[in-house]
Amino acid sequence: MSGSKSKEDDGSSRPAVARITRSSRSTESRDSGPGQYGKQRKKQLHSALTQDLSQMSVSGQGSPTPSEGKQLGQRHDGPALGKCGGGLASVARRMKIGRCRNIVVVAGAGISTPSGIPDFRTPGTGLYANLEAFNIPYPEAIFNVDYFSNDPQPFFSLAKVLYPGSHRPNYIHFFIRMLHHKGLLLRMYTQNIDGLEKLCGIPDDKLVEGHGSFATASCHLCYTPYPSEEAKRAIMSGDIPTCTFCAATVKPDVVFFGEDLPQKYFLHTKDFPKADLLIIMGTSLQIEPFASLVNTVRATVPRLLLNRHPVGPFQRIPLRRGDHMELGDLENTVRKFAEMLGWHDDIVELMKSQEQQQCIATVGGRSGTCSEESDSETDSKCSASSCPSN
Question: pLDDT by residue (tens digit) across 199-250?
C-alpha cells in the first residue's frame, strides 16, 4: 500500500534496495531494440525462418506468410501466430503431470473488465481515455501524489467509482482461486485496487496487492492511519477527509506514482526464483516495477501470457524458448484453459456456492459478505481426476 504500511519498517527485512516506488516508465525503450538474435536481417523470410515461426507456441487469430516480411528480433504487435491452442495445451499438460507446483500469477486490470470495471489504457473505453471531466493536465496525474497533494478532488471523484462493493469477482478470479485450492498457487501479484481477488476467496498470504487497496487509509503526508470507513463516508459524500494529527488530506492506501510499494511486494525476491510456471494475464506491462518482474524467473521456467495483445517480452519474434501466449478475450481463454485442465465444473460450482452464500447473507439482513468456504470444503468437491498427479 502507500507509505502508511512501511512507515514502521526499519528496513532490516528488505533486500539491499531500500525503496522501490511505482513508476509509469514504459518498457518500450527496453524492448524496442533487436532481440536475442541481434542484427536485423535485410532479406524477407525464407524456409529457415518459416520453420522457426512454425515452432513458436503462440495462439490467436491469423497466420502470417513469408511475404509479410517479419524478421528475427522484431517486435510483434499484430495478430498472434501459430497453431491455435498450442500454448495452453502445452502448459496444461505440464500442470496435469505435476511439473508445475509453484505457480506465480501476475495480473492487471484486464482480469476485472468482465466484472464491469474498465481498465486504464484501452483506447476509448479505458479510465485514462475518459478523464476529461476532471480537468487534469495528463491522465496519470490522477494517481500522482504531488498532484493529489495540490488538488485531491479529481482522485476522490474517480474513487467513488472505484471503491469496492459494486462489482463481483468473475470466472478469471475463481480460476486463480482454484489454483490455490489445488495447492499450486505460490503467490498472486496483482496491480488491481478493486479488491476482487480477496472477495473471491484468495487468502491474504497468497496475495500481493502491489498497488495497494481501499481496505485501509492514512494521511498522505505523515502516514498516520485513519479509519477506512470514515474516509470512505467522507469521500462518497463529497467531503475531504483530513488527518487528525497534521490536518493534511487523507487518502485510501492506494499506491500512487512516486510512493513506496508495500513491504509485501518484496516477497518477489523469493517467489520468482522458486516459481516453476509464471502466468501473466490482463496487463499492459507498462508500469514499473511490475513490468520487470516477469523477467526475474529462471530462464528454464515457462511463461504463459493470457492477454488481448502481445506485451513486454512477448512482443519479440521469435519468442524465448518456453514462452507461450494465447491472445483474445481473456475470460474465454481462461475458460478454455480450465476445460483443458478438467477444472471447469469445479470452478462453476465454486462460483455458485459463493453466490448462494452471499444471497443468504443479504436475505438474512446481515452486513457484508458471508465467510468464505474453507479450503478443505472446496477441495472435497474437486474430483481426483482434475487434480495434478502426485
Answer: 999 999 999 999 999 999 999 999 999 999 999 999 999 999 999 999 999 9
Q: Looking at beta carbons, which pairs linking 236-239 to residues 24 or more positions away fall under 8 Å?
A: 236/160, 236/163, 238/156
∠ at Cα 207 (203, 213), nearest 5°? 105
HEC readout, 232-267: HHHHHCCCCCECCCCCCEEEEEECCECCECCHHHHH
* 182's grid cell: 489445488
Give me 135's grid cell: 480537468
pTM score: 0.73
Distance CA 199, CA 269 (A): 26
CA–CA separation, 69 and 53 (whole Å): 12
Amino acid at 77: D
CB 281 within 8 Å of CB 110 = yes
C-alpha cell at 386: 482434475
pLDDT tens readout for residues 270-318 = 999 999 999 999 999 988 888 899 999 999 999 999 999 999 999 988 9
359 contacts: CB under 8 Å, gap ≥ 6: none
Give exposure, 50-61, as e/b (b: 16+ Cβ within 10 Å): eeebeebbbbbe
Active-site annotation holder among 211, 220, 268, 344: 211
How many residues are there in the chain? 390
Handedness of CA 170, 176, 181, 182 (dihedral sign): positive
Enumerate residues 6+ apart whose C-beta is below 8 A from 233. Answer: none
Cα-based distances in Å from 128 to 138, 139, 161, 226, 256? 9, 5, 14, 28, 15
Q: d(Cα 140, Cα 161) in Å, to the nearest integer? A: 17
Residue 211 annotated in active site? yes
Tell me the C-alpha distance between 254 and 175, whole Å.
Answer: 25
